[in-house]
Target: Calcineurin-like phosphoesterase domain-containing protein
Amino acid sequence: MIRLGCIAIGISILLSSCTGARKIRSLGAVPELGMIADCQYADAPTRGVRHYQLSPEKLRACIADFNTLELSHIFHLGDFIDIGGMESVNTVMPILQSARAPHTLVLGNHDFEFPDELKPDVPKILGLSDRYFSLKMDHWRFIVVDGNDVSLYAWPEGSTAHQEAKKIYDTQYPGRPTYNGALGEAQMSWLQGELQKAEKAGEKVILFCHFPLLPVDNHVLWNSEEVVELISQYDCVKAWMNGHNHAGGYVEYKGIHFLTFKGMVDTEENSYATMELRENTIIIHGRGREPDRTLPIKLRAVPSE
Model:
C-alpha cells in the first residue's frame, strides 16, 4: 500500500482499501508526522511564485530535517510533480525515499500529468497499490481519500471512467473548475464504512486529501458539500488536511479542523511541518512559511458496545 522509506517497526494491523483489507506493519505508537504539500517539481521556468526548479532542493532540506526526528510517518498531500511525467518523478522520488520514516503520497491533480496510456498506472508509479485506503496508528485512523476519483484529467480520454466523469460533471457540477474532482459513489460508501468502524472502535480520525472542503473557494472538491455533510456526522472525525491551495488556509466547522498546508513549490522560501498528535490537541510545528498551530481536539462520545 505504501512505499516505505524504512521498515516500520510494530505489530500487524489492517489496512482497508477499495480492494479489500490486507495486513501491513503497524505505523508505530503515539504519532508525530511529517507533513508536506505540493512539492510540484518540474524542469520548468519559474511561473509567478512557483519556483519549480527549487523543489528538489527544498525537499532535500525538508527530508534532512525530518531525518533528525523520530517521525512515525510522512504524508505528502498531492502534486508531488507538475509536468514531466517519469522524468520529474525520477528526480524527486529518490529524495523522498531517503527519509528514515515511512511515507505516503496522496494523489493530486498534477500527479496525473502523464500520457493517457500511463494514467491508470500513476498510483503504482507513486508507490500506491490503491487510490484510497486507511492506516491505523495507536488510537488513530488516517483515512487517505482520492479527490481525483471522478475527474476529467485522471483517466484516459474515451475510457469508461472518463466518460462517466464527463457525464457527472456536465449534469451535476457544470462550470466548476476542471482541475478539481470528486469522490465517487463507491468511495463515499467505503468512506462511510471506515468512519463507522472508527466510531465503533473509539478511534480518532484524520482524513488526508489533496483537495480542500472548507473554506469554500475555487479549490474545493466538486462534491465538497456532500463530503462535509458525511464526515460531520461522526464524532470520531477530528481533522481534514489537504494541499492544492498553495496559499494555505484554516477553518473549524462543527468541531472539525479543516487545514490546508501551504505549497512547498511557492516562493524561494520552503514550507512544510511536523505534527504532534496528543490526546486532546493536534500541534503543528511549521517550517518556513507554514505557521505553527495548536488545534484542540473536541470531546467525542463514548463508543457504544
The first helix runs from residue 55 to 66. Residues 140 and 203 are 5 Å apart (CA to CA). The longest strand covers residues 281-288. Residues 1-28 have pLDDT under 50 and may be disordered.
